[in-house]
Amino acid sequence: MSKNYIVGFPRIGEQRELKKVLESFWANKCPFREVNKVAGELKKRHWLQQKNAGIEYISSNDFSLYDNMLDTIVLLGAIPKRFQYLKDEELYFSMARGNRSSVAMEMTKWFNTNYHYIVPELSLNDNYILNSKKIIKEYKEAKALGIKTKINLIGPITFLALSKRIDRGDTFGLVNKILPIYEELLNEIAQLDENITVQIDEPVFVKDNEPKVLSLIKSTYDRLSTVSANLKIIVTTYFEHSNEATKILIETPIWGVGLDFLHGDENINLLDEIANSGKKLIAGVVDGRNIWKNDIEQTIKLLESISSVVSKDNIIISSSCSLLHTPFTLQYEEKLDAEIKNWLSYSYEKLDEISLVSKVFFEGLNSLNVEDKKDYEDNIAANHSRKNSSLIHNKEVQNRVQNHSKLQRDGLYEDRIKIQKELLQYKDLATTTIGSFPQTQEVRKGRREFKNNQIRYEDYEKQMKQYIDDCIVFQEDCGLEVLVHGEPERNDMVEYFGEQLQGYGFSQNGWVQSYGSRCVKPPFIYGDISRPKPMTIDWITYAQSKTKNIMKGMLTGPVTILNWSFVRDDKPRDEVSKQIAVALSDEIDDLQNAGIKIIQVDEAAFKEGYPLRKQKIKIYEEWAVRDFKISVSSAKKETQIHTHMCYSEFNDIIKTIEDMDADVISIETARSGNELLKVFKEVGYKQEVGPGIYDIHSPRIPSVEEMVNQIKLLLEVLPKEQLWINPDCGLKTRKWEEVKPSLENMVKAVEIVREELK
Length: 758
Fold this sequence. Notes:
The protein is an alpha/beta fold.
């Protein structure tokens, strides 16, 4: 059998079955046993799909009802005190989503992806207790199907690195409390079967780790590798190179190392050491983060280069990372242009690619059967077609972007804000929201029917405008001061724009998990980007015509559009980003000329695009800031530019945020008190800030008193003249029965604080 390997597999279901049953359970429309039933069916389907594709190393414990880090919290018994009175599914989902009495645990980005994980909360007083039920159960479920899986675990060093100490200590100070639980777990796993493979994920090894982190590696893996001779331990890294850590790892008794040779091409420098160690090399050569068809000829050349140093007998061909970050299957993509579809590969198709690559590499072209040989020839033809297609290259766009000379807006912030405050006349602690309002079933149905040509545009437009009218009436009645139109016409904050930009493709079913049941459907960039016509003018100007309040125009920024898309891999990312920025500058000019006085350019994914290695950060920041400034360069001094950022630690990028020169920035802070805000004070940040005062990722409704306290915490850091008050993020995923009382309470809280400040 050819040696091949999948780091991990998506779990939401090819038709988002897990999402649907979870949301039905949360809405009290089905019992939890129905969730378990659907989960069981999905695991079975995914295991068999991999087996039938010819994959040798298939995972268990990569499946999760919400998040693998949350699963690890349960595995280790690292339950925060406020949830310890709960059990089973109530405990699990309360930690992720909060409940009436307790706020949810913090959530943040998984490295530089758009996946989010639950941040563990640890303390020296914790008493960790192993709970291995999920792992044991899944292994046995797979074995009942005749599949002997490798068992996936998040490694102890990564777990600690991604945790926070609520008692202010160093998370690594808990390593000796955590490691015995891992040893106990590995001992249990060793009893399950003969010769079990355990994949321990340590993606934190690809970062610039301090010596204290690197010093933990040898002692940790010396201990874990000697728990049982019945275990083959593979330590896997991805998203970058892990040179420093891997050099230490290969001095331990682990069986193999997993390296990403696509996003961490410097891993090639480790080959001599790996060859001398005799370890197995799990070579990540098929992209687990993008949707382009693998160029098998190029992949074989890369593998031949690797095998010139490391023996073929010690190479196992793998995805570069978990396929969690790609959609399930092209099977349901019935509307894609046939030429473009032929360039794509989703998770199911990547299984076939890995299988075919391994056959060609290990057995040679001459050994392929007729079907495999045809697949190989089709792969070559598809890649040739993509390189030469007229759909990709647009000289007019390239020339315009290359010669675009206006790189930033006119006027200094200090001058602009005086003009804006005089013109806009908003109060201190001005209230607004981030942009979207709940996407009801009716709105989704109307949008879907219009896309499927089941209703006329006039009927669709009437329905969307009625929703906008209702949003405006609610906001006015509620007392919000700067309004939004609610975005009913937008399926997704990136896909909506992708559908209207030349050079963008979009799918019917290209869903990828973002967190929990939340899925996004990223568009993909296949060619040069341009804006054939205005994208938002009609909806925003209609909304402004229905109110005397200021109506914000809502755009997604160039860096977020890039980072939340599948990006073409035949052109540098910074060149693609600049094309998007130039297109957005035209949209901003149209909006302000149509009378829109505040325009929000969301850069929710600005931070997640950061390289994981420090030496690459400066280059990213230079072009990312450049392109945000290009996108707003058409804004007049009196046009107030807002931006929004999600889930970011701002300490290391605050100067970069200043360089972006937005007039107002809103940020997510509700799950972290005012800690994230303090850095703005420390650096003397001049611009205005809207720290989110309640968490929209939880269904709970915060009280007026709670929000008053939150505002007072903010006022301890920044003066009232510099603060806006808003929720953490857009309200698209929430229900109206949660949103209305929450926003009403927010406005009441502001009124109370304003009165006290008089």
